[in-house]
Amino acid sequence: MTASRSDLPTVAVVTGASRGLGAGLAEALAAASIQLGLCARQRPSVPGGADAVADEVDVSDVEAITAFADRVVERFGRIDLWINNAGILEPIGALSEAEPALVRRHLEINVGGVLYGSAAFARHVRRRPGGGVLVNISSGAATTPYQGWAVYCAAKAAVAMASEVTALDEAAHGLRVYALAPGVVDTDMQAQVRTTSAEVMPAVERFRAIERQGAFNSPRWVAAFILGHCWGASRSTSSREDPVRVRVPDEHPG
């Protein structure tokens, strides 16, 4: 990363930081000497040399995520950047065939977890000077219907709209909000997608082709975009003027 220390947040929170994109973001932010609050359903590993609070937290538990935010603030004094990354993919398949318990759990994590984390961070920003940046990991599935992904697409659409409304609600308090589509990152979730039957999800061949081509966005690339675009270049711009829905450009265009 090329940004100077003064151009970076001091403290960042990443949810779902035990694996995949979340773990990769934690490593990239730690490499930039950013202090970290890391949480996931299993306690995340702390990147080597990082100054971090790492806890086991179920983001669908509003009291748990609120208490985690308080612990991070108690340790570091403030939070500048909050990344709601925790999420799941299941259930895959037609909504008419989905188990209600799986649908409910998906929405509790992918929507409820984002709303609870966003609220905890917004309350923190309101209590102290200096504003902040909230990044909610969204997806192209927020706007593109994928057969077999009714629940996932609905959840990501909800995240994107909640981000836009939160940007309006919190603009006067200096909080900027982004619904960030990170592109295709090679995670366990993507591996699961690639094993899905084409009968259940006809678009699966697109994701298999990305693997064959090695055309993934790396977590470091996504982190650089967050620090450069979401935190850096537009940090003096009001949430009412700054586009909330953004997509990380392809790391390997072509």
Describe this structure as you would to a colleague.
This protein is an alpha/beta fold and 254 residues long. It has one domain (5-185, 218-236): 3-Layer(aba) Sandwich (Rossmann fold). Helix content is 43%, strand content 14%. It is built from seven helices and seven strands, in the order βαββαβαβαβαααβ. It has helices spanning 20-31, 62-76, 100-127, 150-170, 188-194, 204-213, 219-233; strands spanning 11-15, 35-40, 52-56, 81-84, 132-137, 175-181, 245-247. Strands 3-2-1-4-5-6-7 form a seven-stranded parallel beta sheet, sandwiched between helices. The protein starts with 10 loop residues before the first strand and ends in a 7-residue tail after the last strand. The model has no long low-confidence stretch (mean pLDDT 91).
